[in-house]
Write a structure and sequence with these properties.
Elements (H helix, E strand, L loop, with lengths): L1 H7 L9 H13 L1 H7 L7 E3 L1 H6 L8 E3 L1 H9 L14 H12 L18 H4 L2 H8 L12 H26 L15 H17 L1 H20 L5 H33 L15 E9 L4 E9 L1
Antiparallel strand pairs: 1-2, 3-4
């Protein structure tokens, strides 16, 4: 986390929307636990002894039973298939980054002559990320995680993607096609768009994922059209984005378990005996014979 923050806080003159990226990264770093804390959780794992319910009393040997296994499932959430590491999912990111890296010095293809630039790729790069967080509110649309979980996964993916892109830019220093600024490899816009697209695919399936990938591909092509990147920059950016999304899903169960243990540590202290000792009972009464109100008081030591 600190490495990612260090990478993007260095001077960067080549990003026209860098201020917005700083704000988004800050949100990812500092409000990540809040997203988890805000989500709804059913703590039905804490159950009362059946004997207590049947007898309608709280005997001295009764206790609140804490089912730790069920608590872990409720708080940490069941693992969906996307959160389980699958080495085959590394094939496309590895090939894309390898091919992109092979064209750093000689470039795979020419980007053509200078042409009129289109700037809509700046806001469009974030549409898949927005869709990932918001599509779950559509009634009937099947998804794997609630809104708090999606915020956590999306923030993690953005941090990973930003750390990889910004550190690689400063290490490789590939000149851009238009200005010659040494910050071309890999394409950050493309990485951002493909991160969101892969998140959508993992969460909602290929139906929504194909639309998100169409937007991401459009962003990559526009970076080439505007002569802001070489083809290999865009290809590597796509690989980084897909990997970042997949890595965020793989890390999610561990992140959620860690954060929940911090925020919900006191929940495990609920396994206390329901002992009536040192108890006080005070209630109003009414006598039908004497037709007078009264007060019942009892104390157990």
């Amino acid at each position: 986390m600190l490495f990612a923050f260090f990478c993007v806080t260095l001077p960067a003159k080549y990003e026209t929307n860098m201020i917005f990226r700083y704000l988004l990264l800050a949100f990812s770093l500092f409000f990540l636990p809040v997203a988890l804390w805000a989500q709804e959780a059913d703590f039905s794992a804490i159950e009362v002894n059946e004997q207590t319910l049947e007898e309608g009393a709280m005997p001295a040997d009764s206790a609140v039973v804490f089912d730790e296994e069920k608590f872990e499932e409720v708080v940490c959430g069941p693992c969906c298939s996307a959160t389980k590491f699958n080495p085959y999912e590394l094939i496309f990111p590895s090939v894309a980054v390898a091919l992109g890296g092979a064209g750093v010095k000689n470039h795979l293809l020419s980007v053509g002559e200078e042409r009129e630039a289109k700037t809509f790729d700046n806001p469009v790069q974030y549409l898949p990320l927005v869709g990932y967080a918001g599509l779950g509110f559509i009634p009937g649309l099947k998804h794997e995680h609630n809104f708090g979980d999606r915020l956590m996964i999306g923030a993690t993916a953005f941090v990973i993607m930003t750390a990889i892109c910004q550190s690689t830019k400063r290490l490789v220093k590939e000149p851009r096609p238009d200005t010659g600024a040494k910050s071309s490899f890999p394409s950050g816009h493309t990485a951002t768009a493909f991160t969101g697209a892969e998140l959508v695919r993992l969460e909602y399936g290929w139906g929504c994922g194909s639309v998100a990938y169409a937007f991401a591909t459009c962003v990559g092509l526009m970076r080439i059209h505007n002569r802001r990147h070489w083809y290999n920059d865009v290809l590597a950016g796509a690989g980084v984005g897909v990997f970042s999304a997949e890595a965020a899903y793989w890390l999610f169960p561990y992140e959620k378990r860690l954060v929940n243990k911090v925020f919900h540590a006191k929940k495990k202290k609920n396994t206390v005996a329901a002992n009536p000792s040192n108890s006080l009972f005070l209630a109003p009464t009414y006598s039908l014979d004497e037709k007078a109100p009264g007060l019942t008081f009892s104390m157990a030591f």
